[in-house]
Amino acid sequence: MLGYTSAMNFDWRFFLTALGLAFILEGLPYFVAAEKMPKILKMMSERPPSALRGVGISAIVAGLAVIYLARTFFG
User: Interhelix angle for 37-45 vs 12-32, to 10°?
Assistant: First the structure.
């Protein structure tokens, strides 16, 4: 450890806030468009895995960009 005794502090409040926000964002489409969700989910289940991965990686990149911009300009 070479004299370094500081432990990493985990910010539970920040983590739980982010987790709560993720739940809100995930649940919003089901609440707003509940009637259309079965059709949308069926349509998504018929897509090839590569298309779903493309949507997933796009969402990840967009999320990272939002975090980067928020921390750069507001942090």
Answer: 100
Encode pLDDT of 1-25 as tens digits: 455 556 678 899 999 999 999 999 9
Residue 3 is given by DSSP the state: T
CA 72/CA 66 separation, integer angstroms: 10
One-letter-per-residue 3-state SS of 5-46: CCCCCCCHHHHHHHHHHHHHHHHHHHHHCCCCHHHHHHHHHC
N-to-C CA span, the chain: 31
Model pTM? Answer: 0.70
Of residues 73, 71, 60, 50, the one with CA closest to residue 22: 60
